[in-house]
Specification:
Blueprint lengths: L20 H11 L3 H10 L7 H14 L3 H14 L1 H4 L3 H14 L3 H17 L4 H18 L6 E2 L6 E4 L1 E5 L2 E10 L2 E7 L7 E2 L1 H6 L3 E11 L2 E15 L2 E10 L7 H10 L4 E2 L1 H7 L1 E5 L4 E4 L13 E3 L5 E7 L4 E6 L7 E2 L1 H6 L1 H7 L1 E9 L2 E17 L2 E15 L17 E3 L1 H4 L4 E5 L4 E5 L6
Parallel strand pairs: 5-10, 6-9, 15-20, 16-19
Antiparallel strand pairs: 1-9, 2-12, 3-4, 4-5, 4-8, 7-8, 8-9, 11-12, 11-21, 13-14, 14-15, 14-18, 16-20, 17-18, 18-19, 21-22
């Protein structure tokens, strides 16, 4: 799955947030990265009860995480222009976030110029080349993408689109595939909400005739990080929908692990369609009853009380939900992963409960960068709520994070400490239809007829 190399975390712990009680509350939510709660709080309290700087900062951050790039650009620019003293040493983080939003809106040259200027200032302050390298790589990527704008531009007219959904069975694990074409060459495409960008293997990039850009990229997956390249498809077609200038990360998915690589060769991973294309669609409905992907002409108004989906710093999707006991859960939402499983951070909180009810097992994960084999417990079932729908998933693995052979804690490219688990395709298949609305950032699920 494609992940950005620059990840900003713990952005505002050093900002001095002092004022009224509302300022203290808003400041705490920002410092704790409680974006869902912050979004709701801004709807519930009057703006004049919060100091102007804190309100502007909170507004900018919610626009960033809830996929409002145009308004986020304006909000971050306003912060930099009006509140330089209040931002203090956090100015760099705001500049990085603004560059991200400029790139999301297709203004790659402006994004590159912003980071280039930041690099020059940091170098003048004595930052060494190793620390500057990720920023310089980001500049290089933005400059390369600026040569092929408009990036991922749709050619199709606005309207309803029905795309046959192919449920592919690979060694007992399902994936969602679609018929489509790249540069006029027909083939299967993988629908993957866990991919922050589109991805393709080097041999398929050559087969489909992609144009390589003069830049490198670092991608991450379950196994770690790996270097790759960037290439652009002149056209991408899915059903009746067509886009031009569609970037793909070109990555060799071989891990060096004999069994994992043999399975990968047998499966032959098709080109992966990730979030950039899905954001262009605005809403995707996975209709399991009729085996189709439906894109409505107009996004469906949210039936939920609050947003339950956000866009993470690693360009993924995070779903806020609850379990059968009403406990809040934060999932990395990934249709490219079949089995839903819980992460070590969740296990650490509920270890006694899991140890008593779970059966010892192991979890084998192969992905970009390598293979991970960890100790797990298998719970007979877990209940999850997705929007207004509830699903019971059988046999859920609880990842302890402990390497099966060495007994040591094993880190991955995914943020184990910030998300409770990975919500996979097996949970979605419990429903008749799942609505993924990327305009208003919510996800809802419709049970099969006769089920509550």
């Amino acid at each position: 799955m494609l992940k950005k190399i620059i990840i900003v975390s713990c952005l505002f712990v050093s900002i001095n947030l002092q004022a009224q009680n509302a300022d203290d509350l808003i400041g705490r939510l920002i410092n704790e990265n409680s974006w869902f709660e912050l979004e709701q709080e801004l709807k519930d309290i009057p703006s004049d009860s919060v100091s102007p700087f804190v309100w502007q900062l909170a507004t900018a951050m919610t626009h960033h995480y809830f996929n409002r790039p145009d308004s986020a650009c304006a909000a971050f620019s306003d912060l930099l222009n009006r509140y330089p003293q209040e931002l203090g040493n956090q100015t760099m983080n705001i500049i990085v976030l603004l560059s991200t939003e400029l790139a999301r809106t297709g203004n790659y040259n402006d994004a590159a110029g912003l980071i280039q200027n930041l690099c020059e200032q940091l170098a003048a302050l004595g930052m060494d080349s190793t620390q500057l390298a990720p920023f310089r790589m980001q500049v290089q990527q933005y400059r390369a993408l600026s040569t092929c704008t408009p990036v991922c531009q749709p050619l199709h007219k606005a309207g309803e689109y029905h795309i046959p959904m192919i449920i592919e069975n690979n060694n007992g694990q399902h994936s969602i595939e679609m018929e489509g074409s790249i540069n006029g060459k027909e083939g299967r495409l993988l629908f993957d909400t866990g991919a922050g960008g589109n991805m393709i293997t080097p041999d398929l990039a050559e087969k489909y005739g992609l144009r390589f850009l003069d830049t490198d990229i670092t991608v991450g997956g379950f196994g770690g990080m790996k270097q790759g390249g960037y290439a652009v498809a002149d056209t991408l077609r899915i059903g009746g929908m067509t886009w031009i200038n569609v970037p793909f990360a070109v990555v060799d998915i071989m891990t060096g692990h004999e069994e994992a690589d043999r399975i990968a060769e047998d499966i032959q991973l098709p080109p992966v369609i990730g979030l950039p294309v899905m954001f262009s669609m605005q809403e995707i409905q996975l209709d399991f009853t009729n085996s189709e992907i439906f894109v409505p002409a107009t996004p469906t108004p949210s039936p939920l009380y609050a947003n339950n989906l956000l866009r993470t710093e690693t360009e993924g999707l995070q779903l806020k939900t609850t379990d059968g006991n009403g406990r809040t859960l934060y999932f990395h939402f990934d249709t490219g992963t079949y089995f839903t499983f819980m992460q070590p951070s969740w296990y650490a909180r509920y270890q006694n409960e899991v140890d008593a009810a779970g059966v010892p097992d192991s979890l084998r994960m192969a992905g970009i960068g390598g293979v991970s084999i960890t100790r797990t417990y298998r719970l007979p079932e877990m209940e999850f709520r997705i929007g207004n729908g509830t699903a019971t998933v059988d046999s859920v693995n609880i990842n302890t994070g402990i390497d099966l052979h060495t007994g040591e804690m094993k880190s991955t490219a995914f943020s184990d400490s910030t998300e409770d688990g990975i919500l996979g395709l097996d949970a979605l298949e419990k429903f008749s239809k799942v609505i993924i609305n990327l305009k208003d950032m919510y996800m809802d699920a419709v049970p099969y007829s006769g089920k509550l």
